[in-house]
Structures are given as C-alpha cells and as structure tokens.
C-alpha cells in the first residue's frame, strides 16, 4: 500500500502511474560513438580492493562502459504509442506559441516548433507538434509551463546584475518581444500575367486586363512556416477577405510571405504567386497599408500576377526588468495618479497616440483596478450625457471604447455560450434569408416563407442568449450595475417622461451588452473568434436581419425598423419584452465579489499551476517575468515597454532627441519625462553589453593571433640550421598579425555560464514514455546561434544596419555603438 504525505492512501491509478529507479546502464562502444564523452567520477571503493574488480577490461565484456542512469516505467493505456519526444530545454520560448484558429479551424491550439536535433520521432518525417486544449485557460497554463523550461531570448545573460531593491539576480540585461499584425483586405487582377512596372498606375493597369473567374485563398508564412490561412473566396479576380491576424511572441524576424493559391477540384490547388515582405527592414510600431505586387514564383520573376491590399504592423520591443519601470508605476508618480481613461484621452488628443488603450487596460486588469476605474469614469460620462439622453453611449468615446475592450476581455466565454453554437449551425446550414421583395424579386408567398424562417432563427438565437444570462462575468455585472444606477439617478434630475425614465436605465445596459457586444458578434463572428472569415453575402444578409431584430428587442422598441413591422417579427418582439427585462436585470445585478475567482476544477491542473509557481520562484528575474502568470497571462513589463515606446515616439523633441518636447500639460510632461528615463536606462544596458562583447572579442582575437605567431616562430627555429642559440631580444609583431584569418566564436568569460545562449545536455527532460533511460553526461555545452549583438566595430554599411537592427532600442530607434539613438 502507498500513502501520501498527509497519510491519505493512494489509489491504484496514483501509485502505479510511474516507477523510477536509479541504476547503471551498459553502453557499447558502437552506441557510445553518438554520445558525448563521459568523465568517470572517483569511485568510493578502496583502491586496495580494486584488483578484484578492475581487471575485467578485456574481452567482450570490456568493449563498452557503464554510466549512471534513471529508469522510468510509465503505465499507459493499452492502445497508446510513443509518437514523438520533444526536448523542451533545447527549444526557445518563441518556439512555443498559440496557433491561429484559421490554421486548423480549431480554437485553443498550441504549436511546438522544433528541428530534427530537438526531438525524437517514431516516423521518418520531422513534423511540428500541434496540440488542442479543451479551454483557453488550460492552453495558457501549459504554454507558461512549457516556456518555463525553454530558453528565453535574454541578452547579456552573463553580465552580473542585481534587481534594484529586492537584491535578486536579474539574469541578463534585457529580453526581446516581437509581433506582427496583418490584415488581408482584398486582391485584384489575381492570375493576370503582366510584366511588373512600378511606374504604372495600378488603376490604369486594371482597365487593361480581362478579369478571370478564380477561387483563391492565401497561406500566411512567417520565417517560412505556415501560420494561418484565409478563407476561400470566389470572384472575378477581385476577392475580398478583410481578415485580420495577430502573431505574437515571435523569433527574430526574417520574412513574411503571403502565398496565393487557386483552388482546383483536381488534382490539387496551384499557386498563383506570392507577396514577400522583408520584416528586418520594415518600419516598427506603425500600420502601413497599401497594394503589394504578387510575384511569379517561377522565372521570369519580374512577372506580376496581380496585387494584394495589405495592412501590416511590425512591433519589436526591448523589455527591461519590471523594476526598471517603477518610475511609471509608483503610487505618487505618473500612471497610478490618474484614471486610465483620463490618460487615454490626453494621449489621444494631445500626443495623437491611438493604439495604447489595450495596453493600459491590460495593466489595470492585472492590478484588478479596471472595474473601479470604469465605474469612476461612468460618473463623468453619464453627467455629460444628461442633455443628450437619446444618444447616450452611442458615440465612440474613450469610455465606450474602454468598455468594449473590457467586455471583450472578460466576456469571450460568455459570448461563446450566448451565440456560438447557434451561429455556427446557421453558417453550416448556409441559411439564406431575404424578406425584402425588391431585393429577392420573389412572390409574396416566398417572402412569407422567409419571414417565418427569420422568425424561427430569431427565436433560436434569443433562446440561447437568454439561457446564458447567469453566466455573465462578475466584472461586467458590477460595471453594468453602476451604469444603470447612475442613469436612474440622473434620469430623475432631467425633465423626462415617465416612460423614458423607466426605459433609459435598461437601454443603457443594452447599449453595451447588445449594441457593442452580442449584436457585433452576430454581424462579424470572425472578429470575435466565433468563425473563420466572412460568410457568403447571402448568409451575411441573414445575419444582418437577425441582428436587427435582436437589437430592436434589446432597445425595447417594436416599431423602429421596416423588417419588424411584419406580423411574425412584431409578435416575437412583443412576446419577449418581459424576458428581455429579466435578461438585462440578470446581467446588471452585482454578484458576491467584484472579480471572478479563476480556479481550475481538475486537481491535476491545480498541481500544474502549483508546480509552475514553484518553478518560477527559482528563476532569475528576467526569466521569471518572461513567463506570464495565471490567470490573466499578461506580461506587465511588456505592456509598459510598449507604452513607453509609443510615448517616446510621439513626444520627442526635434532639436534634442534625448528629451520630450514642451507640452502645455504638466502631468503629461511628467509621464514623458519618466518614459525618457526608462529609455536612458535601456540604452545604457545595450551600450554596456556591446562594449563588453567588443572587449571579449578583441581579447580573443589578440590571443589567437599571439598563439599563431608563437607557433610560426617555434617552427622557424626548429628548421633553422644555426646550432647556437640566438641572444634574447625584443621582437616586434606587426598589427596585421593580430587579425584572425577565420571567424572565431567566443564564449563569455567562465565566471557564470549563460543559460539562454548555451544549453547543457545533462538537463535533458524526463518525459519519455514506456521504459526510458536518462544518461547524465559531462558538462558538455551545445551552443545556440548566438543572439548577442555583433561587435560594433564594423565598416560595412550593411553590417552596420544589421547591427543597429539587432540592438534596436525600445522606442523604435536604432542604437549606435556610441550610445546615441536615431529615429
């Protein structure tokens, strides 16, 4: 019998799952060729007694050697097989990433990208590993767990640094983060052959060609790996996708390719051409939109086969330890002194920064202050709208946009429960509804059938929406309760009719829950992860009609649109008015606590979470911060780095690029000054790393040159025919002798072994199935391709450009060897 530490008896499934034993394994000379050399440890047995067991070195038994090993026996299902073993400790953290839903038309998938030397597979083909998890929380947990054992992209790891205040080891100078946001909008003239002429107006060229009817889709490749697909579109060379993709936590940039394929029933799709974008030289931090030529993949390469309209944003940030951003987050300094909506208003209107709302919201979510800040801002918003009650919460203000971000963040599972299943059923059945006789050109009888069909699907959607009302997240209930209460109070002050005072509180709730959440999810399911790509126009029309009816029901109005004047729809809205009030009451009634309790139900998942926390506690600061914490899995230093970078770009003084320009807002100037302090520290860290590397490389080059020269002197003396020894004298060596003739890879000084740039083989994982053995080896080091910045002493312009790209500052600037920044 087996027992746990607390005395509880283990079940058979617990006690017989895995068995371990320490032993020694015999390795023949033939098998040992492929293994690193093993240095035997001193044996504890007496040397006097070795004569009895040391003399067996000859014969068949002496044709190999023994090594310590760990044998693991794993109990598995009867039909399980060992498919692939991936050595996580050999992977980079950027090799473990979420998968876009379009790749397999599945949600919550994870990709583990590895090379042949980083895995063992039962088959001959080397394939990447793709896993699907039952829910996003579990997917995020396992991404964090796997990344905690992988190699983070940390630079300056062998520089000794301690975190300010806590005295912890930082484990490096900084880490890197990259992201690509891509929107494939539309194509034109796809498949039309013409010689590429950059001087010709594309609109004029379009009139010269005859369009072809083709069915096309696109593959999106990052660094030659397929990461996403667009949907298949039909059209006369003018397909429209309007599909957006976000690829985050990427490895060092190489290229972005969009391959356009023409669908064929037989034998297989054929490639029309491709668009290639060099990400290394692409402008950072800004959306760039335009038409990109589709080039032929076969000679002649200058042949153009149409164009794609793309919108691309490339982001790359240096991320410092979290303590380096303290100047931005102390209680009495900058960000924490004001409501995030006030910051967003000033940043948008005074600095013209448009893309920071999401990052500011993420910081508030991590700090669990987002609900309180929105509730506080709701007071101002309702007071401003007291004179314009007809358009309350209808415009795109900072408040409504922040509410949209908050509802989308907390309500993704709630939206799936509300409309996900019925929406995909309608799309799968390709339901086409048209109740306008002018559009369809059909008889009154056919139109009547379509009205009945519309009524049926409205009921289906509404029943699922209503059944999920109790699943509304706690955070949304608290915010909507505050908004409804404020509207009620302000309604009494305004000169409104009794009917208006009764309806306005409920309409304020539906303005967010339906107008900005559920109805947009029905109209554009691809934007909320409910479906991949835009549906066909006929199905889009069906969704639009359903959305109109549901929105009319949420507005508590029975006569505001032409479609709902039909008898069946009008009766549906009238009959469900009481239930809509019940729904709005349920989603705006606060629950016991303001924030959700994110707890895994499965004990195994809780064990994984506990072990992850214990693992992170042992890591240096930069490594620990590179693995976002549960439950939100938000990286605060990354969010602060992005905010700092954007503020710097929009506030830099033209005449003095190391400080912000003069602003007419003291609070905003304090924020900008704090951001420039962070920039100064970032440049100092990069400069320190580059200087140290240059010194190490020069020292190594000088040592190699000296050894080469000494060897040549020794050879010349041995070949000399003079038997006497020449008197000792000083010998000058030309400076050219110190230039090595080959490229020498220099390891950091042996004070501290870097764990990111170097990997020890004795840390190989123990996740083999069946009976597996693990053989510890010497401290043999396998070197990754060095991520450290190259030596700054270069004369080639291309090399300088590459160097400045690699050590690019956190503000989109290019760092030079002397520590200056250029934008």
UniProtKB/TrEMBL annotation:
This is Rho GTPase activation protein. Keywords: GTPase activation. Gene3D superfamilies: C2 domain (2.60.40.150), GTPase Activation - p120gap, domain 1 (1.10.506.10). Residues 352-555 form the Ras-GAP domain. Residues 158-292 form the C2 domain. It comes from Macrolepiota fuliginosa MF-IS2. GO terms for molecular function: GTPase activator activity. It comes from the Eukaryota. PROSITE patterns: C2, RAS_GTPASE_ACTIV_2. Residues 43-64, 710-802 are annotated as: Disordered. Residues 753-764 have a biased composition (Polar residues). Residues 710-721 have a biased composition (Low complexity).
């Amino acid at each position: 019998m087996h027992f746990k530490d607390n005395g509880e008896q283990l079940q058979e499934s617990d006690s017989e799952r895995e068995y371990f034993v320490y032993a020694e394994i015999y390795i023949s000379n033939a098998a040992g060729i492929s293994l690193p050399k093993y240095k035997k440890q001193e044996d504890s047995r007496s040397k006097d007694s070795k004569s009895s067991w040391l003399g067996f070195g000859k014969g068949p038994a002496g044709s190999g050697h023994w090594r310590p090993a760990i044998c693991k026996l794993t109990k598995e299902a009867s039909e399980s097989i060992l498919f692939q073993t991936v050595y996580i400790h050999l992977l980079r953290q950027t090799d473990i990433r979420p998968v876009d839903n379009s790749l397999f038309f599945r949600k919550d998938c994870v990709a583990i990208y590895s090379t042949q030397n980083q895995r063992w597979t039962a088959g001959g083909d080397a394939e990447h590993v793709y896993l699907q998890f039952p829910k996003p929380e579990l997917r995020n947990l396992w991404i964090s767990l796997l990344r905690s054992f992988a190699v983070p992209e940390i630079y300056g790891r062998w520089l000794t640094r301690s975190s300010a205040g806590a005295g912890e080891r930082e484990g490096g100078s900084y880490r890197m983060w990259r992201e690509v946001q891509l929107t494939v909008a539309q194509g034109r003239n796809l498949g039309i052959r013409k010689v590429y002429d950059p001087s010709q107006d594309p609109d004029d060229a379009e009139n010269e060609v005859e369009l072809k009817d083709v069915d096309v889709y696109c593959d999106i490749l990052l660094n030659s790996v397929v990461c996403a697909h667009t949907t298949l579109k039909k059209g006369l060379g003018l397909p429209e996708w309007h599909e957006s993709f976000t690829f985050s936590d990427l490895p060092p940039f190489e290229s972005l390719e969009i391959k356009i394929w023409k669908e064929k029933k037989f034998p297989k799709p054929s490639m029309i051409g491709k668009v290639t974008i060099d990400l290394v030289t692409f402008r950072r931090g800004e959306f760039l939109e335009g038409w990109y030529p589709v080039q032929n993949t076969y000679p002649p390469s200058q042949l153009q086969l149409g164009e794609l309209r793309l919108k691309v944003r490339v982001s790359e940030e240096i991320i410092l330890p979290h303590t380096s951003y303290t100047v931005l987050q102390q209680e009495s300094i900058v960000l924490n002194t004001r409501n995030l909506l006030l910051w967003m208003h000033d940043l948008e209107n005074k600095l013209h920064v448009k893309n920071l709302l999401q990052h500011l919201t993420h910081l508030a979510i991590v700090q669990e202050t987002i609900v309180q800040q929105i509730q506080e801002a709701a007071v101002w918003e309702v007071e401003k709208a007291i004179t314009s009650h007809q358009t309350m919460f209808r415009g795109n203000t900072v408040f409504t946009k922040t509410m949209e971000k908050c509802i989308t963040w907390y309500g993704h599972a709630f939206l799936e429960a509300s409309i996900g299943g019925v929406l995909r059923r309608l799309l799968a059945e390709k339901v086409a509804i048209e109740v306008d006789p002018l559009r369809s050109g059909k008889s009154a009888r056919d139109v009547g059938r379509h009205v009945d069909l519309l009524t049926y699907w409205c009921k289906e959607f509404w029943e699922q929406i209503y059944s999920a009302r109790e699943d509304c997240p706690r955070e949304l209930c608290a915010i909507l309760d505050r908004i409804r209460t404020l509207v009620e109070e302000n309604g009494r002050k305004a000169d409104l009719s009794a009917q208006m005072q009764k309806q306005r509180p409920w309409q304020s709730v539906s303005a967010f829950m339906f107008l900005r959440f559920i109805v947009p999810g029905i109209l554009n399911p691809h934007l909320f992860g409910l479906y991949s790509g835009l549906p066909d126009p006929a199905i889009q029309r069906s969704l639009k009609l359903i959305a109109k009816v549901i929105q009319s029901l949420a507005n508590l109005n029975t006569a505001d649109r032409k479609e709902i004047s039909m008898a069946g729809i009008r009766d549906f809205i009238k009959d469900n008015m009481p239930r809509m009030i019940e729904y709005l009451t349920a989603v705006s009634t606060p629950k016991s606590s303001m924030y959700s309790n994110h707890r895994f139900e499965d004990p195994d998942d809780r064990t994984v979470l506990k072990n992850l926390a214990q693992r992170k506690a042992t890591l240096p600061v930069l490594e620990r911060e590179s693995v976002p914490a549960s439950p939100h899995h938000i990286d605060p230093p990354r969010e602060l780095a992005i905010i700092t970078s954007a503020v710097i770009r929009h506030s830099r003084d033209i005449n003095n690029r190391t400080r912000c320009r003069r602003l007419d807002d003291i609070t905003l100037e304090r924020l900008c000054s704090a951001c420039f302090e962070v920039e100064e520290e970032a440049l100092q860290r990069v400069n320190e790393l580059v200087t140290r590397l240059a010194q190490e490389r020069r020292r190594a080059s000088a040592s190699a040159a000296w050894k080469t020269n000494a060897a040549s002197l020794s050879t010349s003396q041995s070949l000399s025919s003079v038997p006497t020894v020449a008197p000792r004298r000083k010998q000058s060596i030309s400076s050219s002798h110190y230039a090595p003739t080959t490229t020498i890879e220099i390891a950091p000084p042996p004070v501290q072994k870097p764990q990111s740039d170097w990997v020890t083989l004795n840390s190989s994982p123990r996740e083999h199935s069946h009976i597996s053995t693990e053989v510890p080896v010497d401290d043999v080091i396998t070197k990754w391709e060095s991520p450290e910045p190259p030596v700054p002493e270069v004369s080639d312009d291309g090399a300088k450009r590459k160097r400045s790209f690699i050590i690019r500052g956190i503000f989109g600037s290019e760092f030079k060897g002397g520590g200056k920044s250029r934008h």
